[in-house]
Automatic annotation (TrEMBL), chains A, B:
Residue stretches in coiled coil: none
Key words, A-Z: DNA-binding
Listed PROSITE patterns: HTH_TETR_2
Native organism: Nocardia yunnanensis
Record keyword Thylakoid present: no
Domain of life (superkingdom): Bacteria
Keyword DNA-binding appears in the UniProt entry: yes
Span of domain HTH tetR-type: 15-75
InterPro entries: Homeodomain-like_sf, HTH-type_TetR-like_transc_reg, HTH_TetR
Cross-referenced Pfam families: TetR_N (PF00440)
Name listed for the protein in its UniProt record: TetR/AcrR family transcriptional regulator
Amino acid sequence: MSTASMRQPRNENGINTYRRIVEAALEVLATRGWRHASVAEVAERAGVTRGAVQHHFKDREGLFTAAVQHIMDERIRRIEALQDVDRAPGTGTREIVHTVVELHQGQAFTAALQLCMAAADDPVLRSRVAAMELEVGARGFWALIELLRLDGKEQKVRTTVQAFLDSARGLGLAGILNDDSRRRAQVTDRWVEMLDELPRFG
Amino acid sequence: MSTASMRQPRNENGINTYRRIVEAALEVLATRGWRHASVAEVAERAGVTRGAVQHHFKDREGLFTAAVQHIMDERIRRIEALQDVDRAPGTGTREIVHTVVELHQGQAFTAALQLCMAAADDPVLRSRVAAMELEVGARGFWALIELLRLDGKEQKVRTTVQAFLDSARGLGLAGILNDDSRRRAQVTDRWVEMLDELPRFG
């Protein structure tokens, strides 16, 4: 038996099933919380058998951790893909900054947060989720430095971009219980200004 | 029977018991999460009877909500109290900013976050916790504007202070699973610079 926590699908049917399971897992985790999120409910919402879930994921921990990892990877790729967008001069920072903030909103953010809170009190889960958080954080940080053509060797650049990413996380938290969209838009516009003041290449 | 969710203690014995219960409630909520946080465990950790807990708090929801409200009030008061500290010129912003960031760390922050995540999926709890979040957020915001002697009529001042408070929340999240103290110190120092660049009174 494989020790990997997930088995990557190889054909289109497999990919669709995998995707449906991942999306159902995020929904169940976001709405039920870690303790009440069950593999059975994920299978039911995805419209597959429990066997199909077990075919792709070793166990419950593997299912929900891989689902959060999957959505984080997808979000980082969406940030990286902004590199290829043909932007009018001056609109670049705005689009990038608003995209990063919005990627910290919604059900996927809530699901990631539920996993994080569960991991705080579970040694095995903790080491996996902590490592994932560090890796995703570093990738997002460097993608942003590159996208904004900032000089990453400058301490001031690095700490300001970190402050922005922490702020995006904080805006994610603030959006869970209250409709925070108006305030969020204003804070995000301010970040466009603050990041545009940093030294950059080209 | 009173409909208030907590009965304020009037004498010193009552205040000590109330405080022990509140601290035990935060500890239980932070480590067990909402679903597994029980009144019995709070009473046991506080070294009081369940009856003593029921004397001060109407029900389980009232106990944990009041405990989080209590610690939030206490933290806002600690920020407000910085007003009275006799500071050397130039050291003011640094002390204030580092204090605000550190108040978003540790067990009390984790407990507040557990309550917030539980409230996301519970309509009754949601309206109480959402209102508390807005009220605490507004008080902290204006305390900070006043402490730093900033011009709160300026949009740029308001959005930058909001961005800082969101960043402090994000740093709170980042500190739950990983030892983030070194990065946190650097980001916080950068905030001292950014907030010191804002227009201020006097």
